Amino acid sequence: MGIMGKKAADHEFYCVHCGRKALPICRTGKIREAGHLEKQFCFFCGSATNHAECIPGSGYDKDEFFREYNDGNFSAEGQRIIPFLKWSSQREKEEELICDDEWLNIIPLREAN
Q1: What span, in angstroms and rounded, lies between the C-alpha atoms of 51 and 89?
Q2: What's the CA gap between 24 and 42, in Å, rounded?
Q3: What is the pLDDT of residues 1-36, one digit of tens each?
Q4: CB 65 within 8 A of CB 80
């Protein structure tokens, strides 16, 4: 239970500059969308930076954050370069292309006679 008997969810926050985990926030009431950016103080960076909100079991958990972080989708100002949904769909298309290329390497091509 959360504050005053309300059901609460622990959400994890990760700094978009250094990638480290910040203090979790117990949310009650209005739930933000997965991947929401929120300005918090980062103890590792020593300043207020944007943190991505990760909700376990949602479409944006810590694994998805690290994919986006390692892909470089956050600018030096801490904003997304490409909106998350668009970035996610582009990544899925790229993964499909990689899978198609892998099949080409597995299946030998027949030479025309």
Answers
A1: 22
A2: 12
A3: 444 555 556 788 999 999 999 988 777 767 777 788
A4: no
